[in-house]
Amino acid sequence: MNGKLKIREIARQTGLSISTVSRVLAGKANTSAEARQKVLACAQQNGILQGISSGRLMLNNVMVFAPQRAFDVRTDIFYYKVIQGITAALAQHEVRIRYCGLEEEHSDGALFLEKMSDPQTEAALIIGIDDEHIHTLAADLHKPCVLINCSDRQMRLDSVSPDHQLIGEYSANYLFQQGHSHILHLQCLRRHTMELRLAGIRQAYARHHIPFDDGRHLVATSGFGSEEAEQALTTYINAIGAHAPLPTAVLAGGDYMAVGAVKALNKLRLSVPGDVSVMSTDGFNLAEIHDVPLTSVQVPRDELGYEAIQLLQRRMLRADAPPCNLLLHGRLAVRASVRRVSANRTSPAVSTHDHRLYDE
């Protein structure tokens, strides 16, 4: 059945004009919700929908829910870039995007219901909201909805996220491959996604038959800022004392945390990567730290918006398809902040690098 016959058949069965059916299937904005519902239901019933190009997003209004900080590049560049990716993915469609800020936990359920119940909200994207009550409400409303960088533990909603656990495992494994066995993991654990990354790190240790000791291998922070990371690493090094071996590498949970790690090491007169290597799991915000090119595993970010729109389209075309969780891999960027070390190398104690004590 060719395209014209499809449109004519749908028009005949729905009682709508050919031009209206054509506008709906083309994803045009000047169509009513009632007309779109009739056309999509008819196309689905007759098995026509699968043959329609997946490039057409057959809705006109999308609501984006995210933590308030996501709307300001200065407070959360990661989520800000995710939203930009959504905007870019929808640029070719006649889709209006509206936004609503929600807390990650203990979200305002009444506000969410108000926005979702608005007739103009045809579909929703939920970014970084871990509140399971919000996920339940979204599933119960039966509107197309995709989660981004969070997951529905009731398995009722589609979601797309970086594969945090594999990214954590891969990052630690890369350092092991470079000869590092004493690694300090400087991580922010405020969200379940970061706990998954730590679980991956622990898995890498298990695969290399190395016990993971929280007191020796982990420093947790409440945020991703450089100042907090610098203070945390400084406190850790001071606590272990001058006679204990330093870690040969620091794996930071983000680029700005890596900045803090380098600052702390430099103030202790330790060079990067000469004395201690530094690696990040982020990789987009800073290519260099104090003129040292930063080795990192780049976490998918810009791609999340595009893949979320693809999942939304899948849900529109196949309303009865099983919900899925799409996990995106990271990408290793090898630069100069990590050096390969001998497996037998011992880490130096904190030193001033002043050799005058040995002058005769």
Automatic annotation (TrEMBL):
Tell me which SMART domains the record gives.
HTH_LACI
Keyword DNA-binding in record: yes
Which CDD domains does the record match to this protein? HTH_LacI (cd01392), PBP1_LacI_sugar_binding-like (cd06267)
What the entry lists under SUPFAM superfamilies is as follows: lambda repressor-like DNA-binding domains, Periplasmic binding protein-like I
Q: Which UniProt keywords apply?
A: DNA-binding, Repressor, Transcription, Transcription regulation
Query: From which domain of life does this come?
Result: Bacteria
Q: Where is the HTH lacI-type domain?
A: 5-47
Q: Name one GO molecular function term.
A: DNA-binding transcription factor activity
What's the protein called, per UniProt? Answer: HTH-type transcriptional repressor CytR
Origin species: Serratia ficaria
